[in-house]
Structure formats: C-alpha cells, structure tokens
Amino acid sequence: MLEFLSDYTIRNVALGAALLGLISGVLGSFAVLRRQSLLGDTLSHAALPGVCLGFIVAGTRDLGYILGGALITGALAALFMLLLTRNSRLKTDAGLGISLSVFFALGVVLLTWIQSTGNAAQGGLDSFLFGQAAAILRSDLWIMGGITAAALAVVAAFWKEFKLVTFDPVFARTLGLPVLVLEIALTVMIALAVVVGLQMVGVVLMAAMVIAPAVAARQWSSRLEVMVLLSALIGMISGMAGAIVSALGRGLATGPLIVLAASAAVGFSLLFAPGRGIVWEMIRRARNRRSLRSQRVLTTLYRLAAHHGDSAYPSEQGMLDTYHGIATVSVMHRLQDRGLVQPVVHAPEPTPHWMLTPDGIAEAERILATLGKREA
Amino acid sequence: MLAAIFDNPSVMIVLTGALVGTAASLVGTFLVLRGNSMLSDAISHSIVFGIVIVWMLTRQQSGPVQIVGAALTGVFTVFLTELLVSTRRVKNDAAIGLVFPVLFSIGVLLLNIYARNVHIDQHTVLLGEIGFVWLDTVDIAGYPVPQALLSMGAMTLANLAFVILFFKELKLATFDRSLARALGFAPGILSYALLALLSGTAVAAFDSVGAILFIAFVIVPPSAAYLLTDRLWLMLVYGCAISIMSSIAGYWLAVSLNVSIGGMMAVMTGIFLLAAFLAGPRYGMIAQIVRRRSRERANECRTLAVHLYNHEGGPAQDEENVAAALHDHLHWDETRARHVLRQSIDQGLVVRDGDALALTERGRVEARAILEPWRQEAV
C-alpha cells in the first residue's frame, strides 16, 4: 500500500484531487447556501472556450494560460448571465442555460478550429472535457495549490462579510457592506474552483464537485464554520478516494469516480446524519405512530369499561381489531409488557380478552385529561 | 429532383440541424416559460446513462428502442430530482445538480468498462457529428434517406402533434398551474409527458449535436422568441424560425471557417438571442433605452411647463420666464435646455417671443394637471 502511494503519478493525482475537493468544498458551501448551485455548472461549461483561447494564445498546452483563459470566459459567462437576467424578462434558469450552452458551443467551435489548424500540441486539450487526472504534472499541482491557497485566504479574510451576504444580503446592505462586490467575489471564486477541477474531473462533471460536498456537509451541521470545514473534508476524501480507485482499476475515468464518491457521501449523509437523517426521522415517525396507536387502544379499553360501569370489563380482541380497523395483538402485548393491561379468560368464549390494570386505568385517565385540556 | 436533394450532403445536414432545432424549441418553449430550463441540462446529460443501458440490453445504438429508453431515463431523472426535493433537505437547484452528474458518471464508467468498441465514445457524447449524418442512410422508395433525418423528423412530428393537440392544456398548465389542477387537467402528467418528449428528442439529436449542444437548441431559440413576443403561438413560431435560420447560417459559417457544424449552429442561436436582446421591439435593450429617454424628455417638458406656470404673472416673471433661466435656475446644460425648449415648442406647450417664454393654453393645462391633479380639466 505504501509502495503504491509512493508512486509518482498516483501521488500527484491524489494530491490534485485533494486540492480540488478542498477548494470546491469550501466555495461550494457558499454557492449551495445562496441557492446558486447550478452556477458552478454554467461556469464549468463556459470554461471550455477559455481553455481553447489560452491554448491559442500560448501556442502550447501551458496550464497557466489555459487556466487563465478558463477563468476569464467563466467570469464573462457569469456576467453575460447577469446582464441577460437583469435587463430582460428572462429568468435565472434561462440565463444560466443560455450562458452554459452558448459558451460551450463557442468552445466546441474553437476546439475544432484548433484541430483544423493541425497544431501538433493540441492532443491534450480533449482531456479538459472529461478530465484526465493521469496527465497532471508536478508543476500543474503548484498552480492548482496556488489558486486554492489564494481562494482560501480570501475566504478567511472576508469570512464575516461572506457569511452575512450569504444569509442576509438585505441586512448586509443596510450595514453598508458592498454586497454586489462581495457577490461578484464569491462568483469569481467559484470560477477559481472550476479552474482547479478542470484537469481533474473535466468541465462536464465539475458541477457535482461544487454541490455534492456542500450538500453532504449541510446535513451534519447548521453552523457555517462546521459546514465549510466538513465540506472541505468530504471533498478531499471523495477526491482522493476516486483518484485512488481510478488508479487501481483498469481504465476507469477519474472524474466520474470522484463524482460518485462525493455523491455517495451525499446519500449517506441524507440517510444517516444525526438529527437531519432520513432514517432517524423514519424511526422517529414509526415510534410516534406506535405510541399514538397504543394510546388510542388504551383509551378505547377505558371507555368500554366506563360504559359498562365495570373497571375490570374484559374487552374482546376481535372487537378491538374491528373498532380500530387494524390487528391490535401486537399493541396489546406491548401494553401488557408495560403492565397496563392483562389478558383474561371470559368463559365460555375461547377468544382472548383484555382488561385494564390499575396502572392502565391511571394512564388512560392521564391521556384523556391531557386530551380534554387540548380540546378545551 | 428528390434524388438531387437526398444526394446533397449539405442539404441533408442543414435539414437535420433545422429539425433538431425545431423539435427542441417546440418543447423548450414550455420549459423556458415555466422557469425550469435547467431540466434540459439535467436530462441531456443523464440520457447518456439511458443510452448505455439500452445498448447493453439490446445492442442497439439508435432507433425507437433508444428513444423510448431515453424518454424513461429523462422521466427517471426528473423523478429522482423531485424525490430529493421532497425530502426537504435539498433545494431544487442543488437537487438538479446532484442527480444528473451521478447518472452521467455511471454512464461514462459503464462505457469505460463494457463498451470500448462501440462508437458512443465520450467525444460523441459531447459534440455529436452532424457532418456525418448522410453517411448512415436507409433506402426509402429508392432514395437514400439519412437515419438521423428519419428519427429527427419523427420526433419533430411527435412534438408538433403534442403541442397542437394539447395547446390549450399546455397553455393553462404553464401560465396558471393551480387553475389547471383545479379544473382537473393533471398538469403533472402533462409536464412529465413534455419531459419524456424532450428526452426522446435529445436521444434522436444525440448523434447529430451531442448532449450539451442540444441544450442550446432547447433553451436559446425560445428565450430569444420570448423577448420578441407576448403570444404563446407566436413564441413557438419564432422559436422554430430562429432554429431554422441558425441551422442555415451555422452550416454556412462552419463550412467556410472549417469548424464544428453543430457547434456553429448553436453559436448562431446565441447570436440571434443577442440580436433579440438588443433590438427586440418591446423588450429589447435599445427599445428600453429609447423609451426611457423619451419619458425623460417628456418629464423635462412638463418641468418647464410647471416652472413657467409658477412664475406666470408673478414678480420674478421677467427673470424666470426666459430661456437663460433654464440654465441658471433649472441647472440644465446648454444642449439639454435647447432640446427641451424645442420639443416644448413643437408640442405646442410653450411659445417663444424673443427671449421671453410664455405658456400656451395647452401648456397651462398640462402644468395644472401636475400641480393640482384634483382639478379635472379637459385637454
């Protein structure tokens, strides 16, 4: 295992994936909370023309130029979307879709243009579509690391401001904060995250890396501090897990594996996160339903007894079933375990009968009293 | 004659592109109006999953089975998204962005594992190859008809029939969903049918333009049409017209620049959108700016009328009601003052006598309408 991790390529890939998880986890938290999850999708598709332009300008597959180009066209796409939605009656969803598809189409056109000019160095450009983790070089890692560090530094420096803009932009404006500038900063930084992920998962799947770790982390905590840290952690772990599985398996693409790992984290969190988990809620509901059912059966017994003027009145099992429309045997046994009812024989009938114990009478009276209070 | 058409690759390619655009914008119109255009993004990505699954089951890469499979995949995607939203733990936009990457990833991984030798490679998934549609043909009545043209034609007809048959219901469900539900029109089923058709169209268009460029054909022409008209049927017609023009212009440009034909067609839809955004008759930027300017001008004329009215017959009349006062007292610059004055005189609000300015009867009415709006006067 250690030998495996010391492999040069695999170490690069795992490090790159960790960086990607870190930056997209942190910035994705803000995007998801601000209900801008799909912005990441648009920005990543819009990075394609930038990749091509960077290549055209540099003439080679120089990562610095390519990422610079991607950042610029990503920002332009976001700007274009804002322009469309602010100045016309198109809504956000249409704005996002238009930016995404038109910029991507422009990228396709540029890609085929580069191919038609027959530049020998263009071979690697395709890898930005789906990501090709194995092509990552040590020098690329430095660039990705630099971008990540810069983005994290900005988030740390303006933590309070970003938090306020995320949760209450109106209040932020009344405090005199430059809300528009802060929102633009958050948007541009999502473009930064996209840029880091391009080589790793490609433009198509980058959307998931912005959303998934943040949604997973959200289930575990309602505090922004904890959520961002968790999101970064989940992003890093799923990034590295996907990268390593891809390196182990034969010819499995890295991007989809990373995305599946992050999505698995979402599924697990949705189901099992303490407090918010769906499983816990289902258990809670089942328990409530059960306790409500035993309360109803108990009060039925009590009312029957009261109606007959006999506190030891034996109620027949079948009658209880009919009355409640369900099989009440299990309910009766649970009540018996709690010492609230006891089985009695009511000769000559062979069917089971039940009567209330003194504890059961007290409990039923308590339930009816609170019910009466609520009804009154 | 017909043979000449079917033997001409350019005509075939343009025709296929136009059909993709028409079929897509017929359904896309309703998506844009409902505000869930990004569902087309989700569906067009996740049909990759459907295509691979259907291929593994039936070894068919296209045709009716694939279209039905895609329709199911599309509905499945939307169902999963709504399921996530219904847990109330994930917002709608995040749910869309969570579901399709998963399906897409599984599709790509399955391709990696099982389907190394099929032609559905990752490249086709994204870009398609509309330039090659005329290579894969079937003989119909002795003419070589491209396979893609057939399936796109079928989908276009299906979409058109759906829109025409259910026009009233679609209109109602789009603009007033609660009323549609109250009247018993089952808007949910209608929208699932719409999304199933969209998915089928996506898979039929898959070979030609790929999954992502398809989004452009779904969203962009209807959006452009939305900026041009308020009538639903006109919006449908404009959307189709824009698609057809984009197909023709895109093909011509792509061939002369030697770049991706599908890509260029999609770019052209963007160009048309930009044109509608800038120069649309009512909602276009230019129209809006012109309208704002003319409102500003009208306001300035009214300001002048009020100014003159205030000082009419007063002690400072000789000082206030002169052309120079516009500059000194209202702080308008030279050109603005001249424009306003000319317009006011043209509209018959003000008359000029040398330097002095006087209100006409109409100008007086205008000024009083602002200063004493409770006094209703006939103009």
From TrEMBL, chain A:
The chain crosses the membrane at residues 12-33, 38-57, 63-84, 96-115, 135-158, 170-192, 198-217, 224-245, 257-279. GO terms for biological process: cellular response to iron ion; response to zinc ion; transmembrane transport. Signal peptide: none annotated. Gene3D superfamilies: ABC transporter involved in vitamin B12 uptake, BtuC. It is a multi-pass membrane protein. The keyword Metal-binding does not apply. Keywords: Cell membrane, Membrane, Transmembrane, Transmembrane helix, Transport. It is found in: Cell membrane. InterPro entries: ABC_BtuC-like (IPR037294), ABC_TroCD (IPR001626). GO terms for cellular component: ATP-binding cassette (ABC) transporter complex. The keyword Secreted does not apply. Belongs to the ABC-3 integral membrane protein family. This is Metal ABC transporter permease. It comes from Oricola thermophila.
UniProtKB/TrEMBL annotation, chain B:
It is found in: Cell membrane. Pfam families: ABC-3. One of its GO terms (cellular component) is ATP-binding cassette (ABC) transporter complex. The chain crosses the membrane at residues 12-32, 39-58, 64-85, 94-115, 148-167, 179-203, 209-228, 235-255, 261-285. It is a multi-pass membrane protein. InterPro entries: ABC_BtuC-like, ABC_TroCD. Keywords: Cell membrane, Membrane, Transmembrane, Transmembrane helix, Transport. GO terms for biological process: response to zinc ion; transmembrane transport. Belongs to the ABC-3 integral membrane protein family. This is Metal ABC transporter permease. It comes from Oricola thermophila.
